[in-house]
């Protein structure tokens, strides 16, 4: 019954969309020759950052020729050469200058705009990382186009899917702008191959806009563990861990035994158990690992927003009614101070 | 030239963060009627920071804090909340209510540029994103349009001297970074910036007497032109819980079965 109804609704909807789709296909084939994408890559000290992978993956999925863009200190021999290896990238535009090393949007945005105009790209794609989030809206405004943020899927050259309301709704949106400026969610675009390519590296234009901000310093949390945003396994701790000492005592060995990255809920971060950069959720990082193991996390919607695309979710919590159990593939009700060390031991000896 | 801080704090009325939004039947947006709305949490932080800049009595005095919101008539309540927290005056930009997240960020940024120029603003404090559209663009777009420096996702803001040097510590992937710039400037706020205050009853009463001016987009030379077309809004694919296990061994064998270990 339910099935039948659903099919008929689908059919009706399809019939309704059919004419529009036919028109679109035509449109697309006409545009296919003109479509050309610039993937904006993030680099630090000559190394491409993980957000670059998603920018390239998404750019390749758009279908047209892909040019990669990278700027910074002596990048041609380092990050540009690395980008040239990506399969499917046709060209790398590189701008070597100390001025762009820190990726400050005040001079990086005019730099990009000049190169976009020169290359006549129709699509500009960057990762939805701190770098992309800060830079690309500024670029979009300078180009007078409305950016599409944090997309998780590409429907066609002008239609994209993105989560809104902390992932509680999925928006399909069509852009009417001549240039599409897009940031992409890293966890949704990971399939670019970092080898097998042989792109030509060319010199970009450098408008040398003045830097209005001065980079003073940075403090990065040092970690030997896999990067949270791209790790295959993530173990995440919440308020249930009670203190920073307990967080470290319980979560670190667990992460080590699984070769996992450590994440945290907002409650854990706000209580000082873990560093801000480890926060998973609407206002923190989005992760989609093979395994997400949540420990002492109730599962507020803001937290679920950041992890519900994980392949397998496991939860350990003492409250059997915690909302996390509604999304967990496997749940264990119990005291985390007993269960987690037991789990750590058993995983280690397995 | 900088004698004091003239701060603009744009705020947005959104569905309360604790409410799980429901998609409407026509799949054009989420249900907004009879749903609790509040001040966007990140905007609360920017109002709070503006008020604290005044209270800190730094090298630059705060001359004025202007709160602004664009939307339907109920935005006025949100603006009263901001004034009860300490904003001096408010602009309500009258825009019809809609269920697709309201004005696009580029439109808002253009409108704010108009306000900045007319009201001689030298510091704009915005939230890093609104929790309905989750776009995170308006501040950066505004800074780009004005040609001003920007600092996004600020966790600490310090006015260093009378010349208007500002140091902002902001959150980046993997840690924090500190930037220095000169006013005028655009700053967007992150959760760690401060702990917003509750408006006290006397302040709520006082806020009713503070000036709230009604304006239109046209006053700032902007029209509501949509660049993005909402084709549909749907529910995310539901995740089904896989049930519970009795003990750690059960957990391990289930994870192996699912291929996660």
UniProtKB/TrEMBL annotation, chain A:
GO terms for cellular component: mitochondrial matrix. Its main location: mitochondrion. SUPFAM superfamilies: Adenine nucleotide alpha hydrolases-like, DHS-like NAD/FAD-binding domain. InterPro entries: DHS-like_NAD/FAD-binding_dom, ETF_a/b_N, ETF_a/FixB, ETF_alpha_N, ETF_asu_C, Rossmann-like_a/b/a_fold. GO terms for biological process: fatty acid beta-oxidation using acyl-CoA dehydrogenase. It is found in: Mitochondrion matrix. Residues 37-219 form the Electron transfer flavoprotein alpha/beta-subunit N-terminal domain. It comes from the Eukaryota. Its cofactor is FAD. One of its GO terms (molecular function) is flavin adenine dinucleotide binding. Binds 1 FAD per dimer. It holds the Pfam family ETF. Keywords: Electron transport, FAD, Flavoprotein, Mitochondrion, Transport. FAD binds at residues 239, 265-266, 279-283, 296-303, 317. Belongs to the ETF alpha-subunit/FixB family. The electron transfer flavoprotein serves as a specific electron acceptor for several dehydrogenases, including five acyl-CoA dehydrogenases, glutaryl-CoA and sarcosine dehydrogenase. It transfers the electrons to the main mitochondrial respiratory chain via ETF-ubiquinone oxidoreductase (ETF dehydrogenase). Heterodimer of an alpha and a beta subunit. This is Probable electron transfer flavoprotein subunit alpha. It comes from Aspergillus calidoustus.
Automatic annotation (TrEMBL), chain B:
Keywords: Electron transport, Mitochondrion, Transport. Belongs to the ETF beta-subunit/FixA family. Coiled coil: none annotated. GO terms for biological process: amino acid catabolic process; fatty acid beta-oxidation using acyl-CoA dehydrogenase. Its cofactor is FAD; AMP. It is found in: Mitochondrion matrix. The electron transfer flavoprotein serves as a specific electron acceptor for several dehydrogenases, including five acyl-CoA dehydrogenases, glutaryl-CoA and sarcosine dehydrogenase. It transfers the electrons to the main mitochondrial respiratory chain via ETF-ubiquinone oxidoreductase (ETF dehydrogenase). CDD domains: ETF_beta (cd01714). The keyword Nuclease does not apply. This is Probable electron transfer flavoprotein subunit beta. Binds 1 FAD per dimer. Binds 1 AMP per subunit. The keyword Oxidoreductase does not apply. It comes from the Eukaryota.
